[in-house]
Specification:
It contains six helices and three strands. The protein has 112 residues and is an alpha+beta fold. The chain has one domain (10-96): Winged helix-like DNA-binding domain superfamily/Winged helix DNA-binding domain (Arc Repressor Mutant, subunit A, Orthogonal Bundle), CATH 1.10.10. β2 and β3 form a beta hairpin. One of its GO terms (molecular function) is DNA binding.
Amino acid sequence: MPEHPPEFCPVYRAIGILQEKWVLHIIRVLLQSEMGFNELARAAGGCNSATLTQRLEQLESLGIVSKRLEEGPTRLGRSVYSLTPAGRELQTVIDAIGDWATRQLPAAEPAH
């Protein structure tokens, strides 16, 4: 087991990563299925491409997301993103947030 300095807190570090804007949205979407970049941008709810690129690179460097290039009919292939086993473990985190929200947060009021 790796040794950490006494001031190291894994919960603090995990919250720091997961609180980045769009990170949980990206993970939630990828828990459904692997997706290409544009499909992921739409499914995540409006994340701009620069931010999405940055978040995906960060999650890839942490071993949460993997990227593969798919050959296409043109010279340019398409990037396809999926969760690694470590990323799929976040299903329990997403489920816990959903369960808590269902119990504790009032349903959204219908638009008039």
